[in-house]
């Protein structure tokens, strides 16, 4: 059941993005910013947590999940460190993803070359 | 001849082909859903390997990022993306593609001034506004928390 | 040389002595492949960067041109050329290795008609005996400069065009000899800006500039599309072509079956997935040299107009919210007299 929900929720979040691109003047870059900020907001008001409970990776893998991760990290950090947590929580929460991307990028740039699309 | 700008804008709207909504919808849904399904499988595998829930989440992200990086290097991710659209854009694999592709592209402009400087030229805004939103939420939580307990 | 309105008409027309077209992979799979002088299956052309690859494309094109014309470098008085790379570098780097006086020309995708028109004026006026006019574009160099990295996954909008990987060159000399295609008239366009801000809809932005140049040309010269075997536009694509027809129709000019677009001739839009059609300075240049000039030479066509359109924005101005100013330059080419 978890797998089915992961597929449906994940697919649904992508479809919303596609419709925003096709039907509005929003560019892909703006859609991504909108997604991550929405993720933070939905998590803050307590709506995103239950979605993760239901759909697992279907909710965490889309970029809204990245926002949720940041919001959760900040919440925890504020509880531990007070106001300072507002500055440290987000960075700590996304460190794994960002550093993994960065290392992958560095490795790929050394190992491969840009490819023609023709 | 000077076509009225408003008239021309209307003409433009008539003539320009629209995105094929149903096809875009299906591609985005099935590819995006498929990537999330894959993510769920990876997460289950990390959990089964004995990791905690939050560690398994981070490891899943890292796994998907590495996979996306490899496919980007091979030139396959962009091939899928020309059809899948938001299906490959919205998942974390799209974020990885946005970091890895400029790193590869600007390698010829140096490791520091090319790879280093350009790596986050596309994905940067997500980090900037994601972190901004999280900091704002942190301050709000700090303010309202005493009343929430 | 006489001037009527915006048109420069050459009383003793300069001749197009020779031409050459060089293309890349997609161009090799396209319907005009047989007309090209040289086609590459690897768009890197053995170079380290895409920018170098474009310069190499031009070098091959220039060398082939000289060979076909049986002319050596010292016999060329001036080279006019341009491309899409910032600061026109592809061309400048090409002429690092070709020892002739060189003037860079930037007109985006309109550059081929622009250099030809200039070459016509300069040779007819006696400022140069023989002028080389050449332009190019390279899909990969353009993509990484104007859009996104090549490995970045993005979906193209339905109006987006495909930058051609190709170069085209012509050798223009003072007075057409019998048997040479003649450059009989030229017109430089006026900048038109229909307030299009979408950088992926070049055809939509450029159509009014093409319509303006054509309308004025027909008016100044008291002629009509029916007087020509072909009215070729450089890279309006499917969207821009439709717009051009409608704009001219509104002014009482019927393009009818005379209009053809270089961007739609170079590729098979459906099977080759080139979106709204080909584009880029190399598109019109290679279609001119691979398709139009050979047809004039063999007498398949008697008289044609080539109108190349250029979008004159930069990535900076687009990001700053500016709309896209466009221009269209025109040349009239006529089959040889015996």
Class per helix and strand makeup of chain B: mainly alpha
Number of domains of chain A: 1
> First CA to last CA of chain A: what distance?
42 Å
**Which percent band covers the strand fraction of chain A?**
under 5%
The shape of chain A is globular
Main beta sheet of chain B, described?
Answer: none
What is the C-alpha radius of gyration of chain A, as a whole number of Å?
17 Å
- List unreliable stretches of 5+ residues of chain A: none
Number of strands of chain B: 0
Largest sheet of chain A: none
Largest protein-protein interface: A-B, 82 and 79 residues
Rg over CA atoms of chain B: 21 Å
Write the layout of secondary structure elements.
The complex is a heterotrimer of chains A (118), B (149) and C (338).
Chain A: H1 2-23, H2 28-44, H3 48-55, H4 57-60, H5 63-81, H6 85-111
Chain B: H1 5-15, H2 21-48, H3 53-74, H4 76-84, H5 86-89, H6 92-105, H7 111-118, H8 124-148
Helix pairs in contact in B: 2-3, 3-6, 6-7
Chain C: E1 2-4, E2 7-9, E3 15-23, H1 25-28, E4 38-39, H2 50-69, E5 78-82, H3 89-94, E6 102-104, H4 111-124, E7 130-137, H5 139-146, E8 162-163, E9 166-173, E10 181-187, H6 202-220, E11 230-234, H7 237-250, E12 259-261, H8 262-265, H9 269-272, E13 278-279, H10 281-297, E14 303-311, H11 315-319, E15 326-334
Helix pairs in contact in C: 6-7
Characteristics:
heterotrimer, A: 118 residues, mainly alpha, 82% helix, C: 338 residues, Peroxisomal Thiolase, Chain A, domain 1, 2 domains
What does it look like?
The complex is a heterotrimer of chains A (118), B (149) and C (338). Chain A is mostly helical and 118 residues long. Chain A has one domain (2-111). Helix content of chain A is 82%, strand content 0%. In chain A, helix 2 packs across helix 5 (63-81) and helix 5 crosses helix 6. The longest helix of chain A is centred in the C-terminal third of the chain and has 27 residues, at 85-111. The N and C termini of chain A lie far apart (42 Å). Chain B is mainly α and 149 residues long. Chain B has a domain at 20-122. Helices cover 81% and strands 0% of the residues of chain B. Chain B has helices at 5-15, 21-48, 53-74, 76-84, 86-89, 92-105, 111-118, 124-148. The radius of gyration of chain B is 21 Å and the shape is extended. With 338 residues, chain C is of the alpha/beta class. Chain C contains eleven helices and 15 strands. In chain C, strands 1, 2, 3, 4, 5, 6, 7, 9, 10, 11, 12, 14 and 15 form a 13-stranded mixed beta sheet that branches. The two termini of chain C are 22 Å apart. The model of chain C has no long low-confidence stretch (mean pLDDT 96). Classes of the chains: A mainly alpha (118), B mainly alpha (149), C alpha/beta (338). Chains A and B meet through helix 1, helix 2, helix 4, helix 5 and helix 6 of A and helix 2, helix 3, helix 5, helix 6 and helix 8 of B.
């Amino acid at each position: 059941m978890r797998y089915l929900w992961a597929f449906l929720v994940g697919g649904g979040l992508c479809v919303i993005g596609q419709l925003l691109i096709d039907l509005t003047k929003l560019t892909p870059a703006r859609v991504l910013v909108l997604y991550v900020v929405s993720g933070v907001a939905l998590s803050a008001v307590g709506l995103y947590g239950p979605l993760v409970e239901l759909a697992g990776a279907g909710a965490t893998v889309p970029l809204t999940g990245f926002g949720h991760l940041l919001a959760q990290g900040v919440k925890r950090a504020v509880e531990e460190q007070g106001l300072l947590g507002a500055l440290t929580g987000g960075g700590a929460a996304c460190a794994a993803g960002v550093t993994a991307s960065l290392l992958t990028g560095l490795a790929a740039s050394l190992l491969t070359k840009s490819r023609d699309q023709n | 001849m000077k076509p009225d700008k408003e008239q021309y804008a209307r003409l433009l709207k008539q003539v320009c082909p629209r995105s094929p909504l149903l096809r875009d919808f299906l591609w985005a849904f099935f590819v995006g859903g498929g990537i999330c399904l894959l993510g769920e499988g990876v997460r289950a595998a990390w959990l089964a390997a004995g990791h905690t829930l939050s560690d398994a989440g981070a490891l899943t992200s890292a796994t998907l990022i590495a996979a996306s990086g490899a496919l980007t290097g091979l030139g396959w991710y962009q091939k899928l993306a020309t059809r899948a659209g938001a299906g490959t854009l919205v998942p974390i694999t799209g974020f990885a593609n946005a970091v890895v592709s400029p790193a590869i592209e600007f390698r010829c402009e140096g490791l520091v001034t090319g790879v280093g400087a350009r790596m986050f030229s596309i994905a940067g805004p997500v980090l900037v506004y994601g972190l901004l939103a999280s900091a704002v939420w942190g301050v709000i939580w700090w303010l309202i928390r005493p009343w929430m307990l | 040389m006489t001037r009527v309105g915006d048109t420069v008409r050459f009383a003793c027309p300069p001749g197009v002595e020779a031409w050459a077209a060089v293309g890349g992979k997609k161009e090799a799979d396209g319907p005009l492949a047989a007309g090209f002088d040289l086609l590459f299956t690897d768009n890197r052309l053995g170079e380290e960067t895409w920018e170098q690859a474009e310069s190499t494309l031009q070098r091959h094109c220039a060398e082939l041109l000289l060979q076909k014309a049986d002319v050596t470098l010292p016999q060329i008085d001036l080279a006019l050329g341009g491309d899409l790379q910032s600061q026109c570098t592809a061309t400048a780097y090409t002429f690092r290795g070709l020892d002739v006086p060189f003037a860079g020309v930037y007109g985006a995708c309109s550059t081929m008609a622009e250099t030809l028109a200039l070459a016509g004026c300069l040779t007819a006026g006696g400022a140069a005996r023989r002028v080389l006019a050449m332009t190019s574009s390279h899909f990969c160099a353009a993509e990484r400069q104007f859009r996104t990295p090549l490995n970045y996954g993005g979906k193209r909008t339905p109006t987006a065009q495909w930058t051609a990987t190709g170069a085209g060159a012509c050798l223009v000399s003072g007075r057409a000899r019998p048997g040479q295609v003649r450059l009989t008239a030229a017109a430089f366009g006026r900048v038109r800006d229909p307030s299009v801000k979408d950088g992926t809809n070049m055809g939509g932005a450029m159509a009014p500039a093409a319509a303006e140049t054509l309308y004025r040309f027909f008016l100044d010269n008291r002629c009509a599309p029916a007087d020509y075997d072909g009215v070729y536009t450089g890279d309006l694509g499917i969207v821009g072509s439709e717009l051009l027809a409608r704009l001219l129709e509104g002014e009482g000019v019927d393009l009818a079956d005379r209009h053809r677009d270089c961007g739609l001739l170079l590729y098979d839009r459906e099977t080759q997935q080139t979106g709204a059609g080909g584009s880029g300075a190399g598109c019109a240049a290679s279609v001119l040299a691979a398709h139009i000039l050979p047809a004039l030479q063999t007498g398949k066509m008697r008289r044609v107009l080539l109108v190349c359109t250029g979008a004159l924005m930069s990535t900076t101005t687009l990001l700053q919210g500016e709309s896209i100013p466009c221009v269209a330059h025109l040349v009239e080419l006529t089959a040889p007299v015996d």
